[in-house]
Amino acid sequence: MQKKADVGVFGGSGFYSFLSDVEEVHIETPYGSPSDTFRLARLGDKVVAFLPRHGSKHTIPPHKINYRANLWAMHSLGVRHIIAPGAVGSLQAHIAPGEFVICDQFVNRTWGRADTFFEGPEVRHVSAADPYCPRLRALIANVAEDLGIKAHPNGTMVVINGPRFSTRAESREYSANGWHVIGMTGYPEAMLARELEICYANISLVTDYDVGLEGRSDIEAVTHQAVMEVFAKNVDNVKRLLFSVIERLPLDAERNCVCATALASTGE
């Protein structure tokens, strides 16, 4: 019998380890294997599918993640909403480490990543004007405010290829362009979800100031260890926000967002 889930979450064991009746499910896709085994757990009246995008032992670098397999597997489980937490650096002084940003735009600076399901003979041209689900983003922002969690309700993420961090010159460029946060996994997740007509929202957890922040020559070069230390300190806030959003998410409501009909006028 095919397993089903209501909501998908890209996140590690910290998000589901204390939930009861966690079931492991292995899924193969036409695009190969996802990053890891899925963990399905019930949260209130919903079944949530958790997948660590880097693998359970963080062995997959950002540019090697099989994004298409991850999203296709979520879709095959029946997931219609995906919440995607991720660690980012801040490019603006008013966005401090420990705060969240609920992005509404991205800028893609990656290369070589398989970023579409439509490679022919079927061809679709999906709009990326508003790449994140506005309905899901609004819910996350409202829940964060109710919980007293500092979350910026919009922002632009520049996605770099990794696994290296930016030079100071690159970081200054991104900051000067007015972009807000920098990460390595936000693309092509959002667009692959849109091609599958899945509602997708990002929760960016700011772990550091990026090295090229305007007027700040005292910022030390970021390290992976420092990033993970800040992330660990704030994981409880991530859990609180994530689980409260899932509990309040009305699955029976009509999806009147751009995600639900993304393929309706894309052509063939």
Outline the structure in words:
With 268 residues, this protein is of the alpha/beta class. It has one domain (7-248): Nucleoside phosphorylase domain (Rossmann fold), CATH 3.40.50. Helix content is 25%, strand content 21%. It contains five helices and eleven strands; from the N terminus they run ββββαβββαββαβαβα. It has helices at 67-76, 134-147, 168-176, 186-195, 224-248; strands at residues 7-10, 23-25, 38-43, 46-51, 81-90, 100-101, 105-109, 151-152, 156-160, 181-183, 199-209. Strands 1, 2, 3, 4, 5, 6, 7, 8, 9, 10 and 11 form an eleven-stranded mixed sheet that branches. α2 (134-147) crosses α5 (224-248). The longest helix has 25 residues, at 224-248. The mean pLDDT is 90.
Which helices and strands occur, and which strands form pairs?
Blueprint: E1 7-10, E2 23-25, E3 38-43, E4 46-51, H1 67-76, E5 81-90, E6 100-101, E7 105-109, H2 134-147, E8 151-152, E9 156-160, H3 168-176, E10 181-183, H4 186-195, E11 199-209, H5 224-248
Parallel strand pairs: 1-4, 1-5, 5-11, 6-8, 7-9, 9-10
Antiparallel strand pairs: 2-3, 3-4, 5-10, 6-11
Helix pairs in contact: 1-4, 2-5
Helix content: 25-40%
Taking all Cα atoms into account, the compactness measure Rg is: 18 Å
- Class based on secondary structure composition and strand pairing: alpha/beta
Overall domain count: 1
Strand content: 15-25%
Provide the low-confidence segments as ranges.
Answer: none
How many beta-strand segments? 11
Instruction: Name the shape in a single word.
Output: globular
Largest sheet: 11 strands, mixed
What average pLDDT do the residues reach?
90
Q: Would you identify the CATH H-level superfamily?
A: Nucleoside phosphorylase domain
> Which CATH architecture is right?
3-Layer(aba) Sandwich
Individual helix count:
5
Distance between the termini: 33 Å
Could you tell me the CATH topology label: Rossmann fold
Note the run of SSEs as H and E: EEEEHEEEHEEHEHEH
Task: Determine and state the CATH class.
Answer: Alpha Beta
Q: What oligomerization state is this entry in?
A: single chain
